[in-house]
Amino acid sequence: MIFSGALMSTDEATQSLGGIFDGTSAVHWPLIPNSPTLQPLIEVLLDTPEFFVMFWNTCILTFPQLIGQFLLASPAAWAFSRFTFRGRNLLFTIYTILMLLPFQVLMVPDYLVLDRLGLMDTIWSIILPGAVSTFPVFIMKKGFDGIPVSVLEAAELDGAGAITTYIRIGLPLGIPGILSALLLSFIEAWNAIEQPLVFLKSQNLWPMSLFLANITQDDIGIAMVASVFMLLPVILIFLFGQRYLILGIQSSGVA
């Protein structure tokens, strides 16, 4: 539907979705447009500069979160999986509880902390909470749990220290869990609406998710093309990372 709508003229798209806009339930959406046109695509690429700004904003808000999760969540997951220390089970239980809490519950505490730090209405108000998310820790830990103890014992006998074991054994063997966690985090961050809407007041910092939400009925063609551009990265990453996602979920015991 979205891909065919990207090739429709504004008039044809509005007519096809007329049942939604005039309050009736009758909607006729052809699989192939009656008069295919590249007009919406040209309009987005040449006459909608704010689209490129928000596409770039989406990248800026998303990829630093993934880098932060890899640098912070993977060592934390390795520590939970392979080290024994006092309060480990209690701390991991707290991580799990925080993972289950929806954004609506954490919104006010996050807002107060970010406002106190002076980070409101900056990209860091989105990047930092995402980078310290507890969800990747849970997935990565379950992936690290699947590494045979005999491999770690062999590395220890060879004189490998804790950091060396993590870098040379933990990371390579834990790739399925790491990539599956980052893939799921990418989809969540790329499509985020509530966090940018609450923490970003300046529209020049908005991601594409908010750009699409503010397109009017008169710009239905632009909405379809913008939706395609927003959907393509998710589809491509999912297709190329599907194997690791399945392996990661299987190793984590979630399936």
UniProtKB/TrEMBL annotation:
Gene3D superfamilies: MetI-like. It is found in: Cell membrane. GO terms for biological process: transmembrane transport. It comes from Subdoligranulum variabile DSM 15176. It is a multi-pass membrane protein. Keywords: Cell membrane, Membrane, Transmembrane, Transmembrane helix, Transport. The keyword NADP does not apply. The chain crosses the membrane at residues 54-78, 90-107, 122-140, 173-193, 220-241. CDD domains: TM_PBP2. This is ABC transporter, permease protein.
